[in-house]
């Protein structure tokens, strides 16, 4: 059986990683998303954008995968599991998932914004969040940026292709922890449903996908995912 898991920030919420749009705790509640996660914002004040991503990079060292990530990794014993994630954290990988495609990039990859060469150099220390940090420089003189996808930028071609193949060949799509409003990622479950592939949504809140999903579970990921495979016969009959 091939399972495609489409995950968003909600699957990492129970690890203590803030989501983007949850009202009080969301990351966006504190900063203007278009200022801090866009190429315009990077051009205008790279030191602020760099500081924000560096803080999120270091914050990941202080958190652990939760039972939701671990359940998805455990499914690999029973199925061919492909994880299509909008998250830039590495919690799926740290839980043991082998096939993980980062549609919006990763906090653990950096590159030069001029020559695009990957950056493996030292990162500045960041004992606590600060407003500005000058980004390191590439040998070509360009600035080092996080390899995340900013608003208005194209998705990584390879990750997108693998994600489309994962959903196209899936016997089941599980959509967990995403508000399902950012395209083209949000189009993947719609594509699955249009091709007769069952889609199970796991989210404590309703989303634009909730009415069209085959099943929409109003449950948090860490509670729902560990028993989801056993519940499939009852859920999908
Ligand atoms: N279990 C499951 N879902 C949860 C949980 C939980 N414990 N806690 C919150 N959620 C849900 C929220 O109800 C919400 O629907 O997770 C979703 C998080 O939505 P967003 O904050 O919008 O995050 P996401 O869907 O990943 O955002 C998509 O938007 O800002 C861009 O690039 C960014 O990748 C991000 C994309």
Automatic annotation (TrEMBL):
Gene name tied to this protein: cobB
EC nos: 2.3.1.286
Pfam family membership, one: SIR2
Residue positions of the active site: 104
Protein name (record): NAD-dependent protein deacylase
Chief place of localization: cytoplasm
Highest rank taxon of the organism: Bacteria
Residues holding Zn(2+): 112, 115, 138, 140
HAMAP family: Sirtuin_ClassIII
A Gene Ontology term for the protein's cellular component: cytoplasm
Gene3D superfamilies, per database record: SIR2/SIRT2 'Small Domain, TPP-binding domain
Record-annotated Deacetylase sirtuin-type domain positions: 1-235
Homology family: Belongs to the sirtuin family. Class III subfamily.
NCBIfam families in the cross-refs: PRK00481.1-3
GO function terms (MF aspect): histone deacetylase activity, NAD-dependent; NAD+ binding; protein-malonyllysine demalonylase activity; protein-succinyllysine desuccinylase activity; zinc ion binding
Biological function: NAD-dependent lysine deacetylase and desuccinylase that specifically removes acetyl and succinyl groups on target proteins. Modulates the activities of several proteins which are inactive in their acylated form.
Binding-site positions, substrate: 53, 56
